């Protein structure tokens, strides 16, 4: 595999995984709020009867967010190296 292909994989796949994880959790939150008429506990990932404070996704999963973005930056660098190299 060339640097460009590996770079493209590293650039795209982590972002898609982050979006997938985020939207899976968002669907659980919306189901709790709209169907169960409850309040989402972000730290325990459960639906509760009493209001819960909002905790951002990056605070709850910092290694997933920062690691995924770091891998994407490495992929961007590999793409740039692969495209810069003369054939």
Could you walk me through the main structural features you see in this protein, from its secondary elements to its overall organization?
This protein has helices at residues 3-35, 57-60, 62-84, and strands spanning 39-41, 46-48. The protein has 87 residues and is mostly helical. The chain has one domain (3-84). A two-stranded antiparallel sheet has the order 1-2. Helix 1 packs antiparallel against helix 3.
Low-confidence stretches: none
H/E series: HEEHH
Assess the beta-strand content as a share of residues: 5-15%
- Work out the helix count: 3
Form type: elongated
In this structure, how is the largest beta sheet organized? Answer: 2 strands, antiparallel
Rg, Cα atoms, Å: 18 Å
Helix content: 55-70%
Domains, number: 1
Strand elements, count: 2
Question: Span from first to last CA?
Answer: 15 Å
pLDDT averaged residue by residue: 92
Structural class: mainly alpha
Keywords: Membrane, Transmembrane, Transmembrane helix
Transmembrane segments: 7-24, 63-84
Protein name: Transmembrane protein
Organism: Halomonas cupida
């Amino acid at each position: 595999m060339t640097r460009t292909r590996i770079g493209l994989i590293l650039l795209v796949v982590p972002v898609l995984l982050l979006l997938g994880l985020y939207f899976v959790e968002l669907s659980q939150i919306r189901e709790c709020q709209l169907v169960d008429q409850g309040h989402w506990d972000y730290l325990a990932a459960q639906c509760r009867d009493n209001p819960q404070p909002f905790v951002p996704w990056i605070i709850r999963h910092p290694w997933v967010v920062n690691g995924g973005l770091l891998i994407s930056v490495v992929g961007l660098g590999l793409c740039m190296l692969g495209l810069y190299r003369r054939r």
